Amino acid sequence: MYIRFVVGSDGEDHRYLTGVVTEARLLRDEGCLDVHEIEWLEEVFEWFNENVPVPPYSLNDWPDDVAAWFKSNANPETIGRIWDLIALLREHGRRVRILRSKAPGRICYEDEIQIVVSEFHSL
Fold first, then answer.
1. Among 17, 76, 85, 100, which residue has the fewest nearby CB atoms (within 10 Å)?
2. Which DSSP letter does residue 55 get?
3. Count of CB atoms within 10 A of residue 92's CB?
4. pLDDT by residue (tens digit) across 41-93?
């Protein structure tokens, strides 16, 4: 089983929604966060950079629709940090959805924590 956290309402197609890490970065870049929130967020990002492999997006000719999904058995601390980001997003009025799938798409990349997939499309 795989899980993905996206920002948007239930009525929106998840394939067009932003993931929580990207949305937190956008909040910071758009000047929506207080100084203490920015400092905290930078610490969270640093933790992710040190503890979660970065998929090689720029080194691959992947389709535009690739998305990262966490493995359900990922390190609990990693998922805990995601929940921290979710709390920040919700404090700033962002709606967060949790998606679950046994087969979210064609796997382009995999490590011990996550997969990157080209998502399946319904006809």
1. 76
2. P
3. 12
4. 999 999 999 999 988 877 778 887 789 999 999 889 999 999 999 999 999 99
